[in-house]
Amino acid sequence: MDLRYLRYFIAVAEERSFTAAAERLNTAQPSISQQIKKLEDVYVGTPLFRRDKHHVELTEAGRVFLAEARTILSSVDRAIALARHAAKAQIGHLAIGFVPGAEGKVFPHILPRLRMRCPGIQLTLRSLTTPEQFDALRKRDIDVAFLRPPVGDRALSYEVVLQDEIVAAVPAVHRIASCERVSVAQLAELPLVQVSRSAAPAIHDLAERTAAEAGVIFGEVIETDSVLGTLNAVGAGLGFCFTPDYVRQICPATVAIRSLDIDPLLQIDLLVAFRTGDDTPALQVFLDLLRTWIAERQPVALPAE
Questions:
Q1: Which of 178, 218, 255, 275 could disulfide-link to 192, CB 3.0 to 4.6 Å?
Q2: Backbone angles phi, psi at 10, to 5 degrees
């Protein structure tokens, strides 16, 4: 049954007049009369009103039907209101996880656009290691993650956001710091300071792969539990580390960042990951803005001469 019949019926019952009900609903009086007759004859099977030239009254069946009709419409209106509220709640909050570096390279370009698209949105920003972000995505503690590869969980989807150059961080007072570019062999003179694999598996594995490709064996290895801890150890003169180049913006004065004398340059992907099939409005708006920014950053191919 079309809910319109119920709305017409309730209006006539409350106004006790087909003419007043038509004015209330901004429709023609003959149309309401026809719809009420169809409701009685086709759907209910019994008169709902007693009519004469001057009065409209509910029958006993009409009184029973009125109570149920009001309940039905109230439930429908409540369902609509709850759905709209849920949509607003979804668009109103987004939890973002990120490894160090993402907040400096990505957020200044995306979050202002997100604020413009969704002025009332509430953001939660969480600095987490890549393994912690995988866990937070599965537990729904965050909605989207900026992390390092690989992504081996089929329940998660991912896209490449950008590539970071891998550089060397060395003590600023060491003679290697006077070089514009440093080779892996030069770095092997120093102990390797390395973030633990449990905290940063991609960076950890990169150091081992780089040494193997260069035919170099790093002697002493000092392990830390964070990027900041690694930089502080390098600054204290304990050794060197491989790191994405975003650390140029955050490293202490006691640390010098130098490009590697390697061709091609080492790079590592920054990925954006999210739960496969998650179609919540806030996430979809965020991903749309992110993809637009990524496309804007792509070099434009010049026509052949």
A1: 218
A2: -65, -40
- In the chain, domain spans: 3-90, 94-294
Backbone angles phi, psi at 198, to 5 degrees: -65, -25
H helices present in the chain, as ranges:
3-15, 18-25, 29-38, 60-91, 102-105, 107-117, 130-138, 184-187, 201-214, 227-235, 281-297
Instruction: Provide φ and ψ at 162, rounded to 5°.
Output: -160, 175
Instruction: Name, in order, each residue with C-beta under 8 angstroms of 25's C-beta and a sequence gap of 6 or more.
Output: 7, 8, 11, 32
Give bridge partners of residue 267 from the DSSP assignment.
Answer: 165
Contact assessment for residue 268 and residue 166, using Cβ atoms and an 8 Å cutoff: yes
Cα–Cα distance measured from residue 232 to residue 182, given in angstroms and rounded to the nearest whole number: 20
Q: What is the DSSP letter of 100?
A: T
Reading the block at residue 20, the tokens are 């007043």
Q: What is the DSSP letter of 177?
A: G
Tokens of 188: 């092997």
Q: Which CATH number fits domain 94-294: 1.10.10.10, 1.20.5.170, 3.30.43.10, 3.40.190.290?
A: 3.40.190.290
Q: What is the pLDDT along the chain (305 residues), one digit of tens a residue?
A: 688 888 999 999 998 988 898 899 888 888 889 989 999 998 899 999 998 877 889 999 999 999 999 999 988 888 887 677 656 655 678 999 999 888 999 999 999 999 888 888 899 999 999 999 999 999 999 999 999 999 988 899 999 999 999 999 999 999 999 999 999 999 999 999 999 888 888 888 888 888 888 888 888 899 998 888 999 999 999 999 999 998 888 889 999 999 999 888 889 999 999 999 998 888 999 999 999 999 998 765 444 54
